DNA sequence: TTTGACCTCTTTTCATCGTCAAGATTGGTA
DNA sequence: TACCAATCTTGACGATGAAAAGAGGTCAAA
């Protein structure tokens, strides 16, 4: 935590400061309002300083996406781990963690799952969603331990699609536009419960 | 179809030409590569000409989004209408139409359901997804004619979330990355079938 | 037919953006 | 201590969205 005046010519930890201010800026102004120069201003640094830490704007965005996926999987894992009982309940837990992260970081979440993210990542060869996929596949496999690979894959498709679709539509205002946050959580849990039930049922 | 040389000082139908070239550009370069000046170039017109038809870039994008929603509902309706039998089958048909539009217009589809779209539309007060919501609510109501309002709302949430989530994840490459188009359609239909079955089952 | 108002398009200008090149400053190391 | 590499600043370039001002074309009223 450097106070504004406390630094001289060198910043000290500009790379980290840019990640922080960039993330804030992304949520404030959206992807189209995201500007490298504004990131620099918020970090109280000249407009060309970021170039020494990120080769381009896409490079900074790629870092934000990378960290976003790490946090997303952590959030899912945390929610799932606090549930001891049924694997199906853990599947709901994954969804709760997924939606919690998305609700807390709507713009970043959208960026992570946008075509722009693919364009950005393709230069770096990274596929950040693999952690999410693995985490979910593992829990689905618990629920459907005795099912065929195809059934399990389709159940994983279905589970991911439901939780991703629900929170995406909520963030865009298409679902629960005037609902209270409380009521919305109830609707989300209902969707997750229906999803888990469908996955369980696909066993037979 | 005006040939390049066939026009004089006036374009004739620049507004429509900008919509066409803008839509193409959006799919070619993505939302972050979308440029008013490039739209103008593709319409073979000076960079300031669009201002007389669209007050700003957001204005043009809003028009693209508006038309996108009209086409999306039309595509859903067309697929649903060709199915005569069970209401549940029509629900799957809606999903097929939904995914077909999204697959044919991936960038536009993402824009329609992005936070940027909300930002853009809020200036125009338009909520383009209402047609989709109504269409789907109607079919869900057929399937669940005797259910309570809450059950029907949750079924509608669930149905929309599943089809939206699935196609969104496909477009981003998270589902079926190396699948053939044929295999992917099968996976999509499986997800839609599971969704319809769950909706039907929620009746009791 | 003439005229004049109005639309459409172009040219010019301005502030801002991403990126690059060159120079200033600093901290560590030999 | 003296150098060197990393860090940051300044200045420049081309591109962009938007606004202003002027040129070209259309069309209806006189």
Radius of gyration of chain A: 20 Å
Mean pLDDT of chain A: 93
CATH domain fold name of the largest domain in chain A: Tetracycline Repressor, domain 2
Tell me the name of the CATH homologous superfamily of the largest domain in chain A. Tetracycline Repressor, domain 2
Task: Tell me the overall shape of chain A.
Answer: elongated
Question: Biggest chain pair contact, residues each?
Answer: A-B, 41 and 41 residues
Strand content of chain A: under 5%
Distance between the termini of chain A: 56 Å
Number of domains of chain A: 2
User: How many strands appear in the DSSP assignment of chain A?
Assistant: 0
User: How would you describe the oligomerization state of the chains in this entry?
Assistant: homodimer
Order of helices and strands of chain A: HHHHHHHHH
State the major sheet of chain A. none
Structural class call of chain A reads mainly alpha
The CATH architecture designation of the largest domain in chain A is: Orthogonal Bundle
Give the SSE layout.
The structure is a homodimer of 204-residue chains.
Chain A: H1 14-29, H2 36-42, H3 57-81, H4 87-104, H5 106-112, H6 115-122, H7 130-143, H8 149-171, H9 181-201
Helix pairs in contact in A: 1-2, 1-3, 3-4, 3-5, 4-5, 4-7, 4-8, 4-9, 7-8, 8-9
The first copy, chain A, binds a DNA duplex (30 and 30 nucleotides) through loops.
């Amino acid at each position: 935590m450097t106070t504004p005046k406390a630094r001289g010519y060198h910043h000290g930890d500009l790379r980290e400061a840019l990640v922080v201010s960039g993330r804030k800026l992304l949520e404030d102004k959206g992807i189209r309002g995201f500007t490298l120069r504004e990131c620099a201003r918020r970090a109280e640094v000249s407009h060309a300083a970021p170039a020494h830490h990120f080769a381009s704007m896409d490079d900074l965005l790629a870092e934000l996406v990378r960290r976003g996926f790490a946090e997303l999987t952590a959030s899912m894992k945390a929610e799932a781990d606090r549930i001891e009982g049924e694997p199906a309940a853990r599947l709901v837990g994954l969804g709760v963690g997924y939606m919690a992260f998305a609700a807390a970081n709507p713009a970043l979440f959208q960026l992570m799952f946008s075509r722009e993210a693919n364009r950005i990542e393709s230069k770096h060869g990274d596929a950040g969603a693999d952690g999410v996929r693995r985490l979910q596949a593992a829990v689905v496999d618990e629920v459907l331990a005795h099912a065929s690979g195809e059934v399990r894959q389709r159940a994983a498709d279905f589970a991911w699609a439901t939780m991703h679709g629900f929170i995406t539509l909520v963030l865009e205002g298409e679902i629960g536009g005037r609902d209270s946050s409380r009521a919305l959580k109830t609707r989300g849990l209902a969707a997750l419960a229906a999803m888990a039930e469908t996955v369980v049922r696909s066993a037979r």
